[in-house]
Amino acid sequence: MTARTVNPALGRESDLLKDAASLHAGRIGYASQVTETGLHPLDGARYLRRSGFNDRVSRLVAHHSGAAFEAEERGLRELLLSEFEPDDSAVADLLWLCDMTVGLLGQDLSIEDRLIEITSRYGLDHVVSRSIDHARQDILSAAKRATDYLERHRPK
User: Fold this and answer.
1) pLDDT at 106 over 90
2) How many Cβ atoms are within 10 Å of 37's Cβ, its own excluded?
3) Is residue 156 domain-resident?
4) Rounded CA gap, 100 and 146, in Å?
5) How many folded domains does the chain comprise?
6) What is the DSSP string of 61-126?
7) What count of other Cβ atoms lies within 10 Å of the Cβ of residue 99?
8) What is the structure's pLDDT at 25?
9) How far apart are CA 95 and CA 61, in angstroms?
10) Is residue 96 part of a domain?
11) Which end of the chain has the least Cβ crowding within 10 Å, N or C?
C-alpha cells in the first residue's frame, strides 16, 4: 500500500501523508550529511524542520513506525519526545501502514514479511531488530486503525 493509493481517503490531509511518505521513503534520515544521532526518524525530522517543511510533516517522520521504541533502545527517547510531539492521527496510522507494507525496493509486502525483512537485514541482535520486535504490537494496532479508517472512508 502506498501513500498515493490511500490519499483520496484523507481529503485535505492527503498532502501531509504524501509528503511524509515521500520524504521517509527517500530515506532522508539515513543520508550522511543529515545523520546526527543515528536514529534516522529523528535525524530526518530535524533536517526537514531546518529545511522549512511543515512542522506536522516533521513530526510524522520523527515518530513513524514505532520510532520511539528505537529511540528508547538508543537512549534518545527523551530527546525525540522533547523535540517532536507524537502525532496520534489517521495520517500517522496510514504512514505506518504504508511504511510497513512496502519493502526496501518498493515491493508490496505483508506486515509480517516487512518485519521479517527488517530483522533479516539487520540481524537479530541489532538495535533496529530489537526495536521492531518491541514495536510490533503498536505497528499492528496502527495498521488495524488505518485499515478501519480506509474502510470507513472508501468511496461509495
Assistant:
1) no
2) 16
3) no
4) 12
5) 1
6) HHTGGGHHHHHHHTT-HHHHHHHS----SHHHHHHHHHHTTB-TTS-B--HHHHHHHHHHHH-TTS
7) 22
8) 47
9) 9
10) yes
11) C
pLDDT above 70 covers what percent of the chain?
83
Q: Is the pLDDT of residue 104 over 90?
A: no
Show the domain range for 26: 3-151
Identify the burial level of 12 via C-beta atoms within 10 angstroms of its C-beta, where 0-12 means exposed, 13-18 middle and 19 or more buried. exposed
8 A C-beta contact, residue 58 and residue 49: yes
Taking residue 50's Cβ as centre, other Cβ atoms within 10 Å add up to 10
Residue 19 near residue 53, CB atoms below 8 Å: yes
Distance separating alpha carbons of residues 28 and 36, to the nearest angstrom? 12
Query: If pLDDT is split at 50, 70 and 90, which confidence band does 3 have?
Result: very low
Give CA–CA dist 16/39, Å, rounded: 22
Long-range contacts formed by 109-113: CB under 8 A, 24+ apart: 111/139, 111/140, 111/143
Q: What is the pTM of this model?
A: 0.87
Nearest in space to 46 (alpha carbons), one of 84, 19, 89: 84
